[in-house]
Amino acid sequence: MKIKKRSRDKELVQQWDTAVAAMHRQDAAIQLATEMFATKKAELRQLRSALDSQAKFMDNEQANHSEVEARIDHMDHMRQVHKLRDASAAEQHALSEAADEARL
Question: pLDDT value at position 82?
């Protein structure tokens, strides 16, 4: 009887030790998962920050691009105006010369 009781007690202690060891492994796995989650969360925060910075840079570059395009359009318009003025001046000069020749 004592041998059976000792054997049973020994078996219960082994089961207890096995359960405790399993709990320790599970606790370690949970701790590792928590640390990995925190690391990934920090990485995500950094990536979001970098993405926000790039988005702001892109918005700024688009605004600069729009401004440059507006300046280019303005310069093209001014070139056309100058060409028309030069053409008009040449026509006025030709008309004036023709009028002078007609008077002679």
Answer: 97
